[in-house]
Design a protein that fits this description.
This protein is α/β, with parallel strands linked by helices. Helix content is about 30%, strand content about 25%. Strand 20, helix 13 and strand 21 form a beta-alpha-beta unit. The longest helix is centred in the middle third of the chain and has 16 residues. Keywords: ATP-binding, Cell cycle, Cell division, Cell shape, Cell wall biogenesis/degradation, Cytoplasm, Ligase, Nucleotide-binding, Peptidoglycan synthesis.
Length: about 475
């Protein structure tokens, strides 16, 4: 495998000192996932990464990026010594960005960053080689790590950029230097650190500060804060809007949610267009619009892009739907919608719409009617408005189509009390209290959604439900 970084190139990028010649084929920050040939970056988190340098080298790391020679490591071991490891990684990322020929797309937003990034990965791959962030690597170490891992000869790069506090997006955007910068949406999230939706919008719009000359800003057309996003994109050479609002450059005219897909009708440049996403969800349709806008901004074939977009489906924890078989002989099963990775008001609303559109199977279980069931965990980091935002779920359009709603966490107690008695399931303080009797939650033919912020750990309910199955498969049309 061709070297990604040599000791000489890495030392030049960081201003560090190499103790010996080495060549690395990858970059890692975790010894658990480190591959032979990786450069191990000894970051400080819960523990100091210097404690794991000896282990990394023993596992086959080509070298380690450190601020000093760790205890138990020979002075002539392959190291790159820098004053500060995080800054060293940032320097490596900036150098990785500077040397690549790739057209770069930067993605941010309150909801849908990772899904949109993965849509872009699939869509762009049909017309060139793609490098994109792993998982949700979108913060002060995730962005430079993604850039440092980028091959020089890749055609496209997709960089996800996130934030928890004011002032975080601009420096990451300037490091990524996107040719296309895309905001998925702006919604109540991280309100503990921001005093208003307007403040969140200003922070999201900071991604446009990193645009390359001649770059394109892509933003939603139908938000209350769209004027703020437009103002933030004023310096962009090109501005493109998407959404259901009249006048949007990529105008969403209709969506049809099926059990396994979303069919989307679009008007663009005066012409009708049709595409599909292999997962139900209006939010996926809107994200798909943004992806097609980005593909056009990159000069790609729009028909091919729409076709490739149709191959995308969400990963586990982000809306993937699974068919869980309870009994192979009796052919009894239920469907699980796993959306347990994160939650805020906008993403909860989108997930509820998916559940409402789902079709349970009648006449196969102890209950004559198949049910739509929701397990909703607390939405975290919503600040002083959290009680009102949790209670507002009770007013979601079509909520009466959901048969049972179980609530997890202290913040969801208000919603539980507000639900009609016939719809009110269990309220528990911790996810483990629900996961421990998961079999009682479902009946053959049911469709059950599990949604909540990562910190409330409703993923434990997902795991428990999944273990009920003799066999689990993704619903047809997903992969």
């Amino acid at each position: 495998m061709m070297a990604l970084w040599t000791s000489a190139k890495a030392a030049e990028a960081t201003g560090g000192r190499a103790t010996a010649p080495w060549a690395a084929t990858g970059v890692s920050i975790d010894t658990r996932t480190l591959q032979p040939g990786d450069l191990f970056v000894a970051l400080k988190d819960v523990r100091d990464g210097h404690e794991f340098v000896a282990q990394a080298l023993a596992k086959g790391a080509a070298a380690a990026l450190v601020s000093h020679i760790p205890d138990g490591v020979s002075p002539d071991a392959p190291l790159l010594i820098v004053p500060d490891v995080l800054q060293g990684l940032a320097d490596l990322g900036a150098a990785g960005r500077a040397r690549t020929r790739a057209k770069v797309v930067g993605v941010t937003g309150s909801v849908g960053k990772t899904s949109t990034k993965e849509m872009l990965r699939v869509t762009l791959a049909g017309q060139g080689s793609v490098h994109a962030a792993e998982a949700s690597y979108n913060n002060h170490w995730g962005v430079p790590l993604t850039l440092a891992r980028m091959p020089e000869d890749v055609d496209f790069a997709v960089i996800e950029i996130g934030m928890n506090h004011p002032g975080e997006i601009a420096p990451l955007a300037r490091m990524a230097r996107p040719h296309v910068a895309l905001i998925t949406t702006v919604a109540p999230a991280h309100l503990e650190a921001f005093d208003s939706l307007e403040a969140i919008a200003r922070e999201k719009a900071a991604i446009f500060l990193g645009l390359e000359p001649g770059g394109t800003a892509i933003l939603p057309a139908d938000l209350s804060v769209t004027p703020t996003l437009r103002a933030g994109a004023a310096q962009a050479a090109h501005m493109v809007t998407f959404g259901a609002a009249d006048g949007a450059d990529w105008h969403l005219t209709a969506t049809k949610l099926c059990d396994t897909a979303t069919v989307v009708q679009v008007s663009h440049a005066g012409q009708p267009m049709l595409f599909k996403v292999m997962s139900p969800g209006r939010h996926f349709a809107v994200n798909g619009l943004a992806v097609l806008a980005a593909a056009e901004a990159l000069g790609l074939d729009p028909v091919l892009a729409a076709t490739d977009l149709g191959r995308w489906s969400p990963p586990a924890g982000r809306g993937a739907r699974e068919h869980i078989i309870l009994d192979v002989v009796e052919e009894t099963a239920f469907d699980l919608i796993d959306d347990a990775f994160n939650a805020n008001p906008a993403s909860v609303a989108a997930s509820l719409d998916v559940l409402i559109a789902a079709t349970p199977q009648d006449g196969v279980g102890a209950k004559a009617k198949g049910r739509r069931i929701a397990v909703l965990g607390d939405m975290l980091e919503l600040g002083l408005t959290e009680a009102a935002l949790h209670l507002a779920i009770a007013r979601h359009p079509g909520l009466d189509q959901i048969d049972v709603i179980h609530c997890v966490g202290p913040r969801m107690k208000a919603l539980h009390a507000a639900l009609p008695r016939s719809q009110r399931g269990q309220w528990v303080e911790k996810a483990t209290d629900l996961a421990s009797h998961s079999r009682s939650l479902i009946d053959p033919g049911d469709v059950i959604l599990v949604k909540g912020s990562k910190g409330i750990k409703v993923s434990l309910v997902v795991d428990a439900l999944r273990k009920l199955g003799q066999q689990a498969t993704l619903v047809k049309g997903e992969a």
